[in-house]
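Homework help thread (please don't just give me the answer)

Our assignment gives two proteins as sequence + structure token strings and asks us to describe the second one. The first is just a warm-up. Here they are:
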Amino acid sequence: MDSRFRGNDKLNYMNQELKQIKKIYFVGIKGVAMTALAIVAKEMGKEVRGSDVQEEFPTDATLHRFKIAHVKNFSPEHITDDIDLVVYTGAHQGVNNIEVQTAIKKGISVLPHGKALGLFMQGKKGISVAGSHGKTTTSAMIAHVLIQAGHDPSFAIGCGSITSLQTPAHAGSGDYFVAEADEYVTDPTTDQTPRFLWQRPSVLVITNIDFDHPDVYADLEAVKEAFADFTKQIRPGGFVVINVDDAASTSLLRRIEAKKITFGKTATADFQLIRVNFTGGRTNFQVKINGQNESFALSVPGEHNALNAVAAIAVLLTLGLTIEQIRGGLASFVGTKRRFEKISEKGGKLLYDDYAHHPAEISATLAGARVWFPKRRIIAIFQPHTYSRTQALLKEFAASFGAADVVLLTEIYASAREKPILGISGRTLFNVTQKQKPSTVFTPGKADVLQYLKQNSRPNDLILTMGAGNIFTWVPDILRII
């Protein structure tokens, strides 16, 4: 490799050298976005390895299936001279991680994940799916339908796995690269650039805009500015698909110079969701397109997922797929890992797991569960994620459990990026929530949850674990005792 490459992280220059990169090392490889990019790199013919902590992740099985080697600690000894590129995540101290620092000292190029994803997307027609909620499912729908229609897209989606495809990522031979576009910052330790700004898509989807990540965004206006900046990244001739039901999203319309295609329930939407009903584990819905009503069906619950599908339909139809191709593709889409994922049915009890960690996501997930299972008692087990989010959205969290019959609240799962906040804990959230939902119970840890379920669960219950922490690791023990 040309010696000029080492130490140079400019994406345009690196794109010229990407084919020469043979060995890539991923620091924090078990993160869902990192695993997806590692798979893309491996399928491109790169030698891939990495490191992470010993804690169990939803991606462990995926890394094993793709035979991607990784060590379960961070050590400078892992950074050998034959590595061409080190990709790191904002977690695990970001650029200050010992392995990243070792690479820098050795003159090995290092890139944060956001930049690296932007690099791998170059040369393809990017389809970037952004939004505070729904971007994982929407991008997975688009990738799935493109695959079913024979387009062989590349894709990198942070979900552990798209159930129907048995992978969260692929390096395809087709023209498109579908990517989940995350608004979080590149590296909270050194670079506050929103991660999605390293992407230059031909198609941008904005599912919605909400206040989240209070550790890096001051308020909703700051989040909206990040999305406004992203709309400027659309390549000439490209287009944006945007949710006109969402006030924060529509406030950006006048600032978007690219072609705009709207979706939503609003009558003025170019792709209007006009009817949704739920029968036999199916979500049936109609979309008004150019004055014509078209029928579709999904095997995932909730009006929110019907809206995600409408966004996907808008993208795919505009790209030239037929209604029949889209209808058939969506009908065979069965969701992603940790998005209302069915774990088991045992003794008449259903067990599901979901990544919901924001009040809007909790409310939508529970509403979807309720319409699919109207006669079951829903026990929602929620593990709050991060002190900053819990503090900033305390009232919204407390009001988000309306569709549940019983709510079990655990202690907060803290991010490695933050310290505890005085006066903010799982019990704080419990105290506020119980005033609105008297059936709320404080179960701080796994043992408390298991004891409650052992004593109080009954046939016909739907038990739903929710959160972005490690609550998914409790599922085997829950399954054992119910």
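The one we have to describe:
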Amino acid sequence: MKHIYFVGIKGVGMAALAIYCKEAGMKVSGCDTAEEFPTDDELKKANIPVDFGFDPQLLKKADLVIYTGAHEGRDNPVVVKARERGIETLPHGKALGMFMEGSRQITVAGSHGKTTTAAMIATILKSAGKDPSYAIGAGAIGESAAGHFGKANIFIAEGDEYVTDHGHDETPRFLWQKPELLVVTNIDFDHPDVYANIRNVQDAFVSLQEKSSTTIINRDDHNSRILREGISFGFSPQADFRITHSGVGRERMFFTLEQKGVKLGEFALKVPGAHNVSNATAAVVTCQALGISIDKIHKGLLDFSGTKRRFEKTGEANGVIYYDDYAHHPAEIKATLKAAREWYPEKKIIAVFQPHTYSRTKALLPDFARSFQDATMVILTDIYASARESYSHGITGKTLVEETLKHHGSVRYGKDFFEVEKILERESGDIVIFMGAGDIYTWAKKLWMKNSKS
């Protein structure tokens, strides 16, 4: 395999795998839309050429074409052209599983927190002198790319429960992996376009556990109890690795751990929130299972400075701090805003949320409406529709506004960036957090740059 062409290369999972392949010595290129993506800088740093658009003529010589479901999947014109020319084509999930073969596989799965936890594990191992391979769905990990080809026989990857190729292959993506160590951060109902209920989601995780040797499980998560016994972590007194204390310092989280009654000491984090304490504990357990000493784990955790789009500080201008976050599920919104409130207890926090997909917004509407309690004010936008959705399910951004007003006293509707900008010109805030999985990731940067010049 000499040349791989990635269709939809700017997606976070695709870009990470593309960078891994480039570092492994393969020729890598790809195509995507011209719009700005969180991965643009990392692809440029890796000298990976990106064609704009999906014209079949873009496909020159290639030994393999890897595609994502975000752009018509296997029905994308470039992918169709590749098959006509006899070039092998693979969906991203299946390709990732293929590249992991032959390595000690560390799969981090879960409805929330898998990106951060996988990045923490990679950071600790690197800090400890190991050189693992990894492909993690983030624009970047600190100052480094989210994909890497390492010399150690370890491969860390996220396990995504979404289907391999919607409409063609309904296999959950993570079932292409065969983990030696499986980390499950939590199980929650999401992706209502492919899962009818929480039990269907749980069944997918049970199938993944059947492929793994050892499972590291969040004892605090009720939905994860469907999994068979493994190594448990959490705040629960029944956890094998128990968080006995958690507190907030000046832009630091501190927590103490015990392993079956034996104290492991105090750990420090540069990222906020009890959810990140839980993620960090999962990383501690995983790295200890890989033979890393507690002293090195302490240092590695403190080296972790976060990932792109996870409570990412964009900048500060005129006394306002701007953050960008990927939160697109009610549980993630609540966790992000709770962490922000702990970090900044006396500040006015404005949450700007762009709902992602009609199906998710409709299925979880009551939960979304109750998820903003730690924000001083909420601004809700129009729904960012997925390319996979062809109808609106009878729901709009205004529907969410009306429902949220039942639970929060300060809610505004701004359909797009320009209307949100006007609202923020009238409303003063100390902290503004932009959240969502659509194109909202550019908004914090735009406002910060504009206001820093004024």
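TA reply:
I won't write it for you, but here's a hint about the kind of observation we're looking for: The longest helix spans residues 274-289.
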